[in-house]
Amino acid sequence: MMQLKKTALMLILFLSIGIHAQTTYKRWPDIIRKSDAAWFTTADAKRIAENVLLYQRDIGGWPKNIQMQDELTEKQKKDLIALKKTAVETTTDNGATCQEMLFMSRMYAQVKDERYRESFLKGLNYLLEAQYANGGWPQFYPLKKGYYTHITYNDDSMVNIMNVIKAVADESDYYSIKPSKEVVEKCKKAFDKGIDCILKTQYKQNGVLTAWCAQHDEITLAPANARAFELASLSGYESAKIVLLLMSVNKPSREIVTAVRSAVEWFEKTKITNLEEKRVLNDAGKIVDKKMIPTANAKPIWARFMDLETNEPFFCDRDGIKKKSLDQIGSERRNGYSWYSDAPQEVLKKFPDWAVKNGTKVGASEKKNVNYITVAQDGSGDYTKIQDAVYATPAFPYEKVTIFVKNGTYNEKVRIPEWNTNVVLQGESKENTIITFDDNFSKIALGRNSTFYTYTLLVEADDFSASNLTIKNTSGERGQAIALSVTANRVKITNCNLLGNQDTLYLSGKEAKQYFKDCYIEGTTDFIFGGATALFENCTIHSIKSSYITAASTPEGTQFGFVFKNCKLTANPEAKDVYLGRPWRIYAKTVFINCEMGSQIKPEGWENWSKPEAEKNTFYAEYNCKGEGFQPTKRVKWSHQLTKKEAVQYSIENILRDKITNWYSPLK
To answer: Which residues does the annotation mark as catalytic?
Structure first.
């Protein structure tokens, strides 16, 4: 009897050990993530680890859709060894590479085999090498021709990569393998670049930020097609993981906060609560049909593909033709693809707590938040006037204060005083959020300096930014009349219309640096003038009549004055004789680089404003411009055509460098 009990006890012990020593998961991703830590010490885990090492190419990446736990024949092993140097099919699609790196980390935590550590680090280096200069990642690296080169959010590919890199950059304990400090620093830079790319690819509908597409062109960042049934569209699935990644950033910038808030608003706008998906399964548990059933008060779902302009869901078969409902496409695509998702629900669940923590708006019932103020003429915001919102902002705040201005025409003079630093003035849309006033020199009538009081918007506070606005002086041709006056440092104006006649834009401030991007600026005489260092990128500079574009008053000894890069110089038909500039003060500096100049630009280009001494002291130059107005051989002799070596010095970093590093970056 005692022997029988002893045998039974040993059998129970053997069975418990056997159960503990094996994994019951059949899918490779589940084996990685769901297996107990102790399992990674087993012979089975070590066997699988050998497979994983074989599948890893020398470049560091892995192919996708491999069941690594499957037994390999000797021939298969030899074939994999031969493939190692080829980098064939290495990818991050469908979780590839990222999940194998996690497996190696979990193995190394239990079994200190240096090959596991080296494998992980090779994978990490692969991810870093695969990143584009703009911060995005392709689906395959080395690059594979076709849509695979697009920046790929599809199936969370780029988010998976960034989560790996973030864990390393944060020096968290998620991975058991700790890279060198040098690699950690590379990961920090790569993550920041990735966030920059995410912010730049967030799609705008009529100037309003929404969500993201599954693919974006790696050059233009525009929405892009993939397979025939994967047309460019806003994604209800992929956008959710992107937002959760943004929400994971510690101390997010105002741009990140804006991106998250905008995406949440879009999720609320596009959720579907009157449909429910019904799946029909066969005896083997395989989906044989999907139907969308009208259901009152259904749990929210979102379409995987939504029209870029209307947000309407659409569906495609392999013919690439848009259909309005799921039942209009064939069963192969209908049943073999995920067309709806509830993933954004996790974002909406986490957003309220995140919003309170990060100083953004949750809803009308929350307490007043001085870091986010809404202006709306219909009374739906915190204030109906922009200036009242400015009065409500704290002096010298530690964090950015966003004043969000809803569409409307605001007929008021607005001043951002010196103590209201860190203000973000953000319009709902450039075309329909308009700040306007009609002061001019004669109307002000305060003597010879009356010009400087004519502004519609005056910025005296450092670290100011404005976007999606039209700023206008409507006095017409009644002499000097400023639309926007900036006398502050580290000022960034993006996607704005600046409209006026004479003296539209005044830029000043001691050692001030100012940045204008994607703006439309129009006027007549000297409509961009002042002594600040200012960079204009991708702007349209429009002359209403024959006169002068710039009148710089750059202080003596200042390295840069006005710099125009990749701008387009246009004009009304009646404006046939336009100068690039004349010197308000004799040390004026103005340079045009890679700009397109219309026929309105006079061949001589520059004028000395009856100041012969200016010809010796000004610095007027151009480089690599084009268009009928670019006639370098006919320019005044005292102007310059830059060499390539000289032009390189006109980088955004050199022009706008300041004690606050990269203040002009989209992440700041």
So the answer is: 526
